Predict the structure.
Amino acid sequence: MKKLFLYLLIVTAGLTSCTKIIEIDTKNAEPQLVIEGKIVDRLMEQQILITKTVGYDEVGVYPKVTGATVRVTDSRGNNYAFTEKSPGIYVSRMRGVYGVTYTMDVTAEGKNYQASSKMPNSVKLDSIGVVSNSFFGEERKTAAAFFVDPAKESNAYHFNLYINGVFADRIFVENDRLTNGNNLRVQLFYQANDDDDGLKSGDNFSIEMEGIDSNIFNYWFALSQQDGRGPNQGTTPSNPTSNISNGALGYFSANTFQRMNATVK
């Protein structure tokens, strides 16, 4: 037994002596313009946010881009000027219409950027609720959206989840490639941290459902693949394909919008 102990001690010492600290020299890329814009089917201040990326080792406060010229036109010939309400935030009071294509035109820091998106038909969000699932013998409550997918058209959806008023920083996106025309129950699996066991009795939650076009689905789906939790989950981070021209990051979406609230019993 003593010889075995000495052998293991020698091996451990040998492994320890081979340990090195490797420093990786990460080079910061040039800042890129980021545009995040939505036109929804409600009469409200539509918003287009323009910022810039920051370096890998910099604090995650993204510089706002001011002084840009922002305009949106639609396929019916309407023209909407967006004014800068606060640094980097450009707004115009209008309402999006189903079946209409909207084109965004942004000129910022001497460069021009454009993107188009067609607002799909609205799909009614029938209700939201809680689904109980069993994981390794333990019950877990999950928020869910219930609706009927139209059979005669292709549809895609993006969801936002709020728990007790706090945005759940997860990406939920679906399309009807395999579920066209079905009654759908879309579960929004979420946990605040590794020790969280899901929704609890008394929790208030809200679900927002957006009907989106195919380009925006591809954008959110690419991001969702990077939204892994834990080892070996998700893909290597990269910029998702944007529908905005001239190398800008972000997206421009004309989408339907619905929101419902509920309480966990």
User: Anything to note?
Assistant: Confidence is low (pLDDT under 50) at residues 1-17, 22-26, 229-236. The first strand starts at residue 33 and ends at 40. DSSP finds two helices and 15 strands in the chain. The first helix runs from residue 2 to 17.
